[in-house]
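Checked the freezer inventory, then went back to the computational side. Two predictions to log before the end of the day. The first one is the construct we discussed on Monday; recording sequence and C-alpha cells without edits.
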Amino acid sequence: MPRSLLTPVAAFCVALAWSGSWITGKLALASAPPLEISAMRFIIAAVVLAAIAIATKTDMGRGSLRPVALAGVFGYFAYNAFVFVGLTMAPASDGALIVPTTIPVLTALAASFVGERLTATKLAGFALASIGAALVILAGQTGDEVSSRRLVGDLLMLLGACCWAVYTVLGTIALRTRSPLAIVTIAAPVGAALLIPLGFFEKGYADVVGWSTAVWLNVLYLALAGSVASFIVFYWVVRRVGAGVAAMTSYLVPVLTLAMAVVFLGDRPQPLQLVGGVVILAGVRLATWRLSQDSQPIPEGAA
C-alpha cells in the first residue's frame, strides 16, 4: 500500500469499527444492562492492552499521568456511561447521527483551550451543527411518553459526544510524551475501575454468568475492535494529523452506521433526521475548514 494512503485507510478502519460498535452495542443491550456491558468491555480491553504492552515491551512514557488518567475518565468512563444508557432509550440511528457528527465541532472548540484559536468560523459551525442536532432530536419526537424517553436518550448521547471531544484533546497533550499504545493501556484500567461500581446499581453482575453467547460476542467486539484496535489506531491518526482533523474520521460513521442499522436492527430514520444530519455535517465542515487547511501532518514514518 502506498504510504500516502496509510493514514486515510487507517481512519476509515477506525470509522468502520466504531460503526460496528453502535450496532453490536444495541444488540447487546437487548439482553444485558448498559453499565455492566461497559464495565466488562473495558475490563477485557484493559487486560488485552496490558498483555500487548508487555509482549511488545512498550515504553509507558514520561511526564505527568494526569492527561492520560483524565482521558480514561472522559473517553472510557463518561462517554460509555452516557452513550450506552442513551442507547437503551433511543435508536442506534439517533446516536449515529448525533454523536459522530458533532464530535469534530466539539473537538475544534475544546482544542481552543489548549492553544488552538477559537475563530468566528468555528463558532458559526458550532451554531449550525447545533441546529442540525436539534433537528435530529426533534424529528424523533411524537409527543408521547416513549418520545420523552427518546429525547433523554438523545441528550445523553450528546453529552457523550462532549466527553469524547475532551478525550481527543487530552490525547493530543498525552501524545507529546507517550505512544498511542501507552496512552490507551494506562487509560483503559482507569475507565474500567470507574465503570465497575456503577454495574452494582443494575443487577450487581449476578446475571453475567448467564449472558448468552451472542451477548459475549458483542461485548468482545466492543472490547477488541471498538476499544483496543480502534483506540490505538485513532490516536496514531491523531499523532499524524492533529486532533481536529482526526476527529473528522467521524464523518464516515453516520453513513456506515445508518446502513448497518437498517440491515441489522430494522431502524428507519425519519427524513427530517437525515436533513438534520446533513446540517450537522455542514456545520462540522464550516467549523473545521480552517483547521483542516492549517493542520500540518507528521511526516510519513515519524509516528
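The second is the one RB wanted added to the comparison set:
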Amino acid sequence: MPYAVLVRRAVPLLVAGILVAGLAGPAVADDSKLAKEDVPLQPTAVLRGKNKLCCGYPLVEELGWALRFYWLALEEDFQHPATSPRRGRGKDVPANTWVELYTQDGLFFGRVPERFAWSLRMEGSGLMMDGRVVNYKGPCKYGYGTCFEQLDVNEHPFGRGAGRRPLVPFKSVAVDPSVIPIGEPLYIPELDGLQLPDGSIHDGCVRADDTGGGIKKRKMDFFVVTHANFRFMLDQLLNVTWITPHIEAPRCEYMRDPTSW
C-alpha cells in the first residue's frame, strides 16, 4: 500500500485515540489564564473518611444542645458595686447591702456583699478574699438563708462538683445526670481547636463532673473559672452557644474517671 494512503488512514485513527484517551482521563480545569490574571485558585480538597478513633457518637443533631457557662464567684469582684458581675436576677440585688454567711451547723462564716452571696449561691463555688474556697451547701435557718462550707484547697482548689468531684478548669461540665452519667467523658467538636485564655488550644474533650438545678435535658454548663474567662471564651466562640456533644469518643477516654459521686 502506498505510504500516502497509510498516512491518510492513520491520522483519523490517531485523532480518535487521542479523543478517547481524553474522555477517559480525569477532567482538568484550564487554570493557566486564571493564574496569569492573579485569580486565587482553591486548593484541591482531600477526601477523608470518618476517623473511628476520634469522635464517638453524637447525642443530638448538629448544634442541638445548649451551651452555657459558669465560674467561681470571686469576692474581690464584688468590692465595687458599679463593676461587679451581674446576670439574670442578680442584677436586681441591692448594690450596697451586706449579709452574713453561716455553715449548716450555725458557725459564722463571714460578712459579704449580698451580690457576692447571691452569685455564690448561683455558681455553687467561690473564692473568699482571704483565700478560702467555699461551696454551696443548701438552705438553712441562719443569716442569709443559704449555708456554705469551706473546702480543702488541696482537694478542691476550684470548687466541688457532684459528690466529691473536683472541678477542673475548661474540662468540667455540669449536666442533667438523667441524660448524661456523671463521670462520662464527652467530645465537643465546637470546642476542638479553640484558644483558651492562657494561649493553649482545647482538644474538645470535657467530662460530666457537676449538676445544677437549672440544667435540664439538652443543656450543658461549661466551667471556665472566672467571669473574665467567660467573656474571652464567648468571643472565641463568636457568640455561638449551641453544641453537638458526642459520647464514647476514643480520643477523650483519658478523661474517664471512676470516682463516685
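For RB: Residues 2-50 have pLDDT under 50 and may be disordered. The first strand starts at residue 57 and ends at 58. Let me know if you want it refolded.
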